[in-house]
Structure formats: structure tokens, C-alpha cells
Amino acid sequence: MMSSQNIFNTFSSVQLILDELKKNRLFADYCYQERISKGDVLDLKNNYNNYFLLIEYGFFKLNPDINYSSKAQIFLHKGDLLLFSSQPQPIFGHPVCVALSDAIWWKLDVTFFKAVLFAENLTNSILIPGLNSMQEKLYIHYLKGGLNARGRILFVIQHMEKFGFLVNKNNIELPLFFNHNILAEFSGTSKGYAIETLYDLRKQGILLSKKKPWVITDREKFKSICIKENIPPIT
Length: 235
Hints:
By secondary structure, the chain is of the alpha+beta class. The chain has helices at residues 4-11, 14-22, 27-30, 110-119, 123-145, 149-161, 180-187, 191-203, 219-228; strands spanning 31-36, 41-43, 51-57, 60-63, 74-76, 81-82, 96-99, 103-109, 165-168, 171-173, 207-208, 215-216. The strands form three sheets. The protein has a four-stranded antiparallel beta sheet. A four-stranded antiparallel beta sheet has the order 2-7-4-5.
């Protein structure tokens, strides 16, 4: 059975949002795409009061404030809609996005976007799922913060499974951008400790990580380790 969360995600898909906006003859005047290259650093502060950002393709890490530590990073991917505050003093102080892969996003003029939503009565089907998605990301960040260093590494790898390529029932390729630096950053550990933990997983025949893409070669065994070490599952 499809969960209520999955139903929300269906209603808030990239294509649904774009299809609804394109019905308006002024769409091309107020919405446009940007191609973004892997490694690009995007200062988002000027988007307040101007644009919503809809990710059509690719992966990003969002730092809610440029002055925060790397532990504050939030993982973004296709379908995520960045809903910035319209108040003079936003909740996020100075957000910065870094592209983890080549990507495309839409910049949607705030005034136009809101006008279409209200005119077509789409607020519940688009804005609520968008907020729900961000709430989920913050909850994932909360769960990760309660784990020890090894637990955070296992948690991050488990999370990356959701975005991997399923080779077969028990093998999955993790995203191409995923490497030791990204793992260490998202788990809030040192690169050295991340490498040490991966060595243990390789020794158990669970992970291949010497070349890209990394491959979980025994998903069932990895799952059993996560359960044994009380790593919260991500549904």
C-alpha cells in the first residue's frame, strides 16, 4: 500500500508543478531553468522574496547558514522545492547550495508561483508536500545526530541506498558523487575514521569502495548490521 507520504510526493512531483504553471500564458516570463555544474557553489541569500527553487535533476547539499559547520548540511535531490521565507528576517541566515552532481533546477518567481497556486487551488497539493519533505529532512538530521560516529556513517550509507542503482536484489550501486569526503562530511566524522569504518565493511564482504560507483554487495547483511547496531531505518 502506498503510504500517505508517498501520495504527497506523487502530488508534488516536478512534472505536476511544471504542468500546472505552464497552463498560465505568462509562465515563460516568470520561470526559467538553470544548468548547474558539479562543484558549483550557489549563494542563495538573494533568492529570498524573489524565487522558489525546484530541483528537476541532480543532487545538492544545502547549508542553512554559510557560517554553520558541515554538520548542518541538508541533502537535496530531484523534486525538492526550496520554500524560502518571505519575511525580511528569514529563518535561514545565509543559505548556500553546493552541487554534488551536474544538475538542473527551475527558478520560479515567487509572486507568479503563489498567484497560480491560489488561483488553481493547488496550495494543499504542492506547498504542504514541500513543507512535509523539508520536515522529513530535518527529522533525518535529528536521528543522525543521536548516533555515535560509526552509527552516523552507517546511517548515511543507508540513506544513500535510496538514491542508488539497483543492480539486483542484493546489490546496489551508490550515487556517483558519494565518496570519502562526502561520507565524512554528512556523518560529521573525520575522513580517516570514515575510511576505517569502510575497511571493516569491505572486510565483511558488504561494500566495494575502491572505485566509483561504490557498491553494496550484500544488502541483507548490511541491513542486519544496521538493525544490530540500532541504526534508525529510513522509510
